[in-house]
Fold:
Amino acid sequence: MSSTVKRVNIGMATCGIAMGADKVFDIFKQLTPPEVTIHKVGCLGFCPHEPIVDVVSEDGTIVRYQKIDEVKAKEIIEQHLKNNQPIVSYLFQESFDILEKQTRVVFRNAGLIDPEKIEDYQTRGGYEGLKKALEMDPDDIINEIQQSELRGAGGAGFPTGLKWTFTRREQAKDKYMICNANEGDPGVYIDRLIMESDPHSVIEGMIIGAYATGCNHGVIYIRMEYPLAYERLNIATKQARFRRFLGKRILGKPFDFDIQIKRGAGAFIVGEETALMASIMGKRGHPRTKPPFPGQSGLFEKPSNINNVKTLANVPWIISQGWQAFHSIGLSTGRGTSMFCLSGDIKEKGMIEVPMGTSLREIVYDYAKGMSTDKPFKAAQVDGPTGEFLPESHLDVSVHSGGIVVLDTHHSMVKLARFFLEYSQKESCGKCVPCRIGTRAMLVILDKLLNGIGQQKDLQLLEELANTVSKASLCGLGQTAPKPIQTTLKYFRDEYMSLVSTNKFRVEVV
Amino acid sequence: MSMGKTRSMEINGKKVFFEDGETVLNVAQKAGIFIPTLCSRPDLPSWGACRLCIVEVDGIRGYPSSCTLPATEGMIVRTMTPDVQTVRRNTFQLILSEHPSSCLTCKNAKECDALRIGEFKAGRVIGCNTCSAKDHCEIRKLAEYFRIREITVPSLYKNLPLERFDPFLIRDYNLCILCNRCVRACQDVLGHSAIAITKRGHDTKIGTILEVSHVESGCIFCGHCIDVCPTGSLTARNSRWASSNPEVTVATSCILCSHNCQMIVEEKWNKVVNVHPEMNLSARREYCVKGRFCIPSLVNARERLKYPTIKRGDIQKEMVPVDWDEALDYTVANLKKYKPEEIVFFLSPHMLDEAIFVFQSLAKQIANNQVVYSDDDLREYLKKGVKAIYTTEQSIVLAEAPYIDFVILQDIFTSKYQELANVVLPTVTFTEETGTKTGIYGMRTKVNRSAKPPGLSKPDWVIGVEIAKKFNISELSYSDLDTVQDDLFLHGNLEVPLVPKESLFYRGIPIASKVQEFRNLIRAQQELAESQGVKFVAKF
Structure:
């Protein structure tokens, strides 16, 4: 017999709400006995199991239910909350094993705290990092970050501390600290999870970064498709402002900083830093060539520092726990953790956070519990639409934060490569020739192959085009857009070869 | 241009010098090293989109575009490595895959060009031979450099409809390579933002925001976009088929308003075929639609006066063409009937300085210095009992007061006012005469003759001098323009009223009556103002 129930946490991130958590929340709100408090919490990363309801007892033990609907909610209230009898058939106890296996730094509060209450964040050590940082010298903070070997989690993996020094050494009246929350990769919701479940960690990271780099303006650029995250960030900034973590003379120190939240207009390319800054300035989201780098001349031609949501969420933890704690996670190839959004033919889909250097094999077979179909593993698509397809022989490599789509043998690699190429092609900003025309030309050739009228020379042309586009494009999108084609051509060439038409006389009819 | 310290770098093993703030492309071009490029233009901010000017630089990953890369001390650049050349060729092939490229890759193109004289007018451009921009097309120049004979990448011709619905421009975005020069000229140089890049991916195209018409988007039809376009996507409706290979190119000034912008007139077949400003954007002022697009249609209008005519016959009065001698004799004989107080000169502010000076002097001698420059002033004189009017402008007052004894109309175009005049003297437009014109701030600009005057028409000042000769006025016995200008210089300021930029008239003639496109523009602006419920003000 467990102790009495104290609070109920209902997963109310976008994934939970999509599965009906708001209705479940209403039921609990109406029928729960008054001594039990109801809390909206974020996402634990088990999106397919939503709505998840945690029943927390007075001694801190958590009983977790999964896939709760209105009927089940009423049963839980009757049996568990009132009579203290957990309903075994609805339980989701295996989640604790999966959580225990993970190393949760960025997701430290996700799914445990109410994202709309700053008190919840503070009881779990929130804003302690900021208080500590404001006592430190800015150079010491940068030093701390540099020693922790924190790297940008947006994709390029540039050392964060080094990036901060660029902005720090510029002398200007106005400097900008920008948070890149334009998470555009299809099927990846890591930033959304952080902003919906733990918005204060991003804000705290930004304030510390601004203090270290000497920025006085902050902008969070959030994509339009994340309305809930936008709302929660707005609430969080208001609360932070109220508690004097933002605004003039933060915590009584001679340091002014405030954050504006800017919503995007629905473009993938704006995740590129120069395009993002163009978009904030009200221009069309076009990347530009570097130099000048944002550190020298960025937003409104002022020195600007731009970091990803995931990177910034690490910062308060590093400051409060010390760089050694962060440095001890991961391998020499990379410190800290990586976050993955798992999908495809695997048993456990959702989001996980694991130490850097965790191999793909571990992720697929340990964290995701293996293949969900009876077919064997064929490939994993990593790093979003402009990422790579890794075959079975590459299962032992470790990959960057981002999406992992695990594929079994019944998928056609050519079709999948075409899908991702089509996405990049559609999302190309249209500025430079190789990306705008080259990706389209590759798409036409792929269609030719898939329609059975491709020739051997088309395959060579495809390779040459991929080479041209990756070498000649202006920004990262174009440079990496051919990667799905290049990697599938490298590892699954036989699939392309099987599509090459043997009939020399068959011609394309337009 | 910032004058910094002279620094040095190395391009293709050659030591070159540069100053701070220059791009690698700049430095290379100054050193005589050719780097192909389509989107860059020295008078526009760098853009870096065509990716043809890529180079290899020691210490920089990948291939940066030289047009956006600032030159730094000790940089080592290679522009012609095999890999760079391959990537460039492939990129250029991609550009050609969207563009109608049959003539660009044809091995017989040279012979074909030599055989075909002039343009093949066509609704749609299907190759260089049917393109009106053939002679200044920058893709053609690069095609010669790359010598691509076969395009291996799939054809991606967009087959977009021709955009013909705005008054002055014809836009064929199938030819567009999205170099963004037009948008940069519009947004960055002029600050208008009438056009922008719209849509994304392969559908990206130049257009107006929200796809409104150009009249609605705030386009002032200054034509900068046409001047910077490296292809035939943007062409001027009135001159697209006539402007290639001009026989004569003359630098002159536009006198349609007192801003007197500098312009270059292209002449062919003894007619003005195209007018454009100085090609270097940084050297030009803002150009208006009147000067940019209206001048050829205005001066080439069919209804030009070609012969002097006088009204003859006692009962049935009709205008009879005569030679100059007879016309001027008749004029002078009639003017002599009136006392000086009874004659008034109406001088058009559009006349050149020399002509105004001659007629002012003439008025001093024969008309008691009675000179007016506007309809209202003319009405004042009519009230005072003036009996003879010498007008150089189609004045509405002539129609209001048909009782005037004697009217001399010195004009360019045929009109209903001819019937009201006793003598009509044909004169020339400002493109057909040489002289000077004083504009705003007292600036005097030069006007140069670029086309042949039609028929027997003569410049204003010549007519004035010839009339003076008939009157035996020795002070005005000028033999050539130089002597007039000498006296004009001694005389100083002429005190002629300025013509505002918004003026819709040229010598009393509504420009819209001669220029159909201008009429359409004014009508479109009127309709827009009506639909928005605001007062109509012509904007250009």
